[in-house]
């Protein structure tokens, strides 16, 4: 189970990296932000990385001989990733490995796409403080409360 959890965290990290690169693309230049900032790049700019993922429409667009496949990333499109790093898109928990503790959850308020993940990695929406875990509150200053 611990091995599954560690792999899941890595998968989520690769998914987020791929999603970020796919959405933002790669760019560089004098206007780059300090890499120590937590804010993303300005509009129309990408993140500087050693390499960018490749957009795809089918597995054959990827380097299948090295274990890549075309991974769907919801409304962001698709990109080539290691097959084990592909997110499993879902609509509800029944699409996920609930026996391993996975749930169908969202990563952010910016999109409605859901993927299978550990519960702690999922965005938790609420209607009031009573819906939240002990010691947390429901933030109502967004269109959807978190």
Tell me about this structure.
The chain is of the alpha+beta class. It folds into two domains: 1-86, no CATH class; 88-146, no CATH class. Helix content is 16%, strand content 13%. The chain has one helix at 2-24, and strands spanning 68-72, 78-82, 89-90, 103-105, 114-117. The protein has a three-stranded antiparallel beta sheet, with helices on one face. Strand 1 (68-72) and strand 2 (78-82) form a beta hairpin. The longest helix is centred in the first third of the chain and has 23 residues, at 2-24. The radius of gyration is 17 Å and the shape is elongated.
Tags for this entry?
3-stranded antiparallel sheet, 1 helix, about 150 residues, single chain, alpha+beta
Quick recap of the structure?
This protein is of the alpha+beta class.
Protein topology:
Elements: H1 2-24, E1 68-72, E2 78-82, E3 89-90, E4 103-105, E5 114-117
């Amino acid at each position: 189970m611990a091995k599954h959890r560690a792999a899941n965290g890595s998968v989520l990290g690769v998914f987020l990296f791929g999603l970020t690169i796919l959405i933002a693309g790669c760019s560089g230049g004098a206007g780059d932000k300090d890499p120590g900032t937590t804010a993303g790049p300005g509009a129309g700019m990408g993140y500087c990385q050693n390499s960018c993922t490749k957009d795809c429409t089918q597995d054959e667009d990827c380097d299948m001989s090295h274990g890549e496949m075309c991974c769907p990333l919801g409304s962001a499109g698709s990109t080539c990733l290691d097959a084990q790093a592909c997110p499993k898109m879902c609509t509800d928990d029944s699409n996920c490995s609930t026996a391993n503790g996975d749930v169908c959850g969202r990563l952010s308020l910016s999109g409605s796409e859901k993927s299978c993940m550990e519960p702690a990695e999922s965005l938790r929406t609420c209607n009031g403080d009573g819906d939240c875990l002990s010691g947390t509150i429901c933030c109502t200053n967004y269109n959807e409360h978190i």
